[in-house]
Write a structure and sequence with these properties.
This protein is of the alpha+beta class and 376 residues long. The protein is built from 12 helices and 7 strands.
Length: 376
């Protein structure tokens, strides 16, 4: 029986693994950003890189923004037609073969538990068997090998074939309304309706938005709300994002924070198949510029070209935010589905949330409570 790793050993493991991932991303970032920030794109977040739904067709996992950057480059380099990737073991388990094919990699981020925090005059990390106090984690990451569906031979499982044969799904108005109502119920801040503005106020920890009837569509309103909710998760009482704390101090902070919020909102939109058509996208961009008159799109674009690693950093922050929003929405949708089996929601979303939910849990715990925080 192997000896359990000490907290120091775990820290060393996490550091080595994170360094390998950083080196891997650094080797790919320049080429990815060069294809994203071309002269035809006014805003980085409008790049097709972020609109394609890259997913694992076996587990139904939708890859986040960070991995979408990696997989989009693979699709371009190797001319893959379908955005579906799975592991070798998943392929073998479903009767497929990829003999002789070379894998590519995605990034898997997770937490390594050091132990538990012990309440002493000088807090220290205890071994698992010494205390059952609050667990202490450090961030870690690793590279996971994956293969495109085109690299496999054999008869595809019926569920996978169905995904490949189907057109990109688009939520119906009633399905969109379901997600919108769930978002209103799970957002961590108060929502105040005021004519003439859409913005988040960190000092008040509240979102101010136009009344619903002033938006051109429910999709427009939902995306705008998701943008502001994404800002709210950067608050120091939640994810404590430096770009939000220093938003008013310089264009570099504003540019980064707006990129994170826009990418996060787009990720959630994509997750629930609330696809943005070109007209809605243009309306959103126009609304964004009206509400963010100090945002310099050309400056931001230049900055990301000069320091392309910022794109990956922003994608990582946006993933953290979007994942929290999706988690809250999924738990709410599970409860709504239990109360109403005929709830209007897409079959793919329904399959995902049912698979993720634990039947024995009647009332899922909320990650964040409604906040009454005021800065002193």
């Amino acid at each position: 029986m192997s000896k359990p790793l000490s907290p120091t050993d775990k820290k060393d493991y996490a550091k080595d693994a994170n360094d390998k991932v950083s080196d891997f991303l650094s080797s790919r970032v320049d080429k990815i950003v060069s294809t994203m920030t071309n002269d035809d794109e006014k805003f980085v977040w409008n790049s097709p890189v972020f609109s394609v739904k890259y997913m694992n067709p076996i587990s139904k996992t939708i890859y986040g923004l960070e991995n979408s950057l990696l997989l989009s480059q693979l699709a371009e380099d190797k001319d893959y037609s379908f955005p579906f990737y799975l592991t070798a073991s998943q392929g073998y388990a479903n009767g497929l073969s990829n003999k002789g094919e070379k894998s590519d990699f995605i990034v898997n981020r997770f937490g390594v538990k050091l132990g538990y925090m012990k309440d002493k005059p000088e807090p220290e990390i205890a071994r698992d068997d010494e205390s059952k106090a609050k667990a202490v984690y450090i961030p870690a990451s690793k590279l996971t090998p994956v293969f495109n569906i085109a690299q496999f031979t054999g008869d595809l499982p019926a569920a996978v074939q169905k995904l490949m044969d189907a057109n990109q799904p688009k939520a119906t108005p009633s399905e969109l309304e379901t997600v919108y109502q769930a978002l209103l119920d799970t957002m961590p801040t108060p929502l105040k309706r005021v004519v003439g503005t859409n913005h988040y106020r960190p000092t008040e920890d509240a979102i101010y938005m136009n009344p619903s009837n002033l938006f051109k569509s429910r999709l427009h309103e939902t995306n705008t709300l998701l943008h502001e909710v994404s800002h709210s998760y950067g608050h120091e009482s939640r994810k404590n994002r430096p770009s939000l704390r220093h938003y008013s101090e310089g264009i570099e902070h504003r540019a980064y924070e707006e990129l994170v919020a826009n990418l996060s909102a787009q990720s959630v939109i994509k997750h629930y198949d609330l696809n943005l058509d070109p007209v809605t996208r243009q309306e959103l961009d126009e609304g964004f510029m009206q509400n963010h008159t100090t945002y310099d799109a050309s400056w931001a674009k230049s900055a990301y070209k000069n320091n392309p690693s910022e794109i990956f950093r922003a994608a990582k922050d946006a993933d953290r935010t979007a994942n929290t929003i999706v988690h809250e929405l999924d738990q709410k949708l599970v409860l709504m589905l239990k109360a109403n089996p005929d709830l209007k929601i897409s079959e793919m979303v329904k399959e995902r949330i049912i698979a993720k939910s634990a039947p024995e849990i009647d009332a899922p715990k909320k990650t964040y409570k409604k906040s009454n925080y005021k800065r002193k």
